Amino acid sequence: MHEYTVLAELLLGRRAMTGAEVAETVGLATGGTTRLLARLEERDLIEREPDPEDGRRLLVLATTRAHEILWEDVTDTGARRIVTGAPAEWVDWFRPVTGRLLDVAVRRVQEMRDREHRDRVRRRRRRAAET
């Protein structure tokens, strides 16, 4: 899920991201983000390049392969069927917006799941401390 979110953000945003921005986007700690990016890089879906403004940082970019494989999935949300009869320029505008909305919805669901998991862990720890 996190991998798809990162790739969708890179493809839809059409910009490079820092590791910190990726971590914030997916809600992972530094170690989890590093492993996530390593998996994506291993599959040739992202590449990391030095930041020209700050050589200590790396920028994460979607590769041509990621674009070829995922662009249709990221942007094709069935918008053409939804807006049948609408002018083509409306549809072209609507497709990425719908993809972006779905991306936000996926992130919100993931945040909700993460929150529920943290709450369960806290309850378990509290119960363990009480006994």
Automatic annotation (TrEMBL):
Lineage top rank: taxon: Bacteria
SUPFAM superfamilies according to UniProt: Winged helix' DNA-binding domain (SSF46785)
Transmembrane domains' residue ranges: none
Residue span(s) of domain HTH marR-type: 3-57
InterPro entries membership: HTH_MarR-typ, MarR/SlyA-like, WH-like_DNA-bd_sf, WH_DNA-bd_sf
PANTHER family assigned: MARR FAMILY REGULATORY PROTEIN, TRANSCRIPTIONAL REGULATOR, MARR FAMILY
Stated name of the protein: MarR family transcriptional regulator
Source species: Pseudonocardia tropica
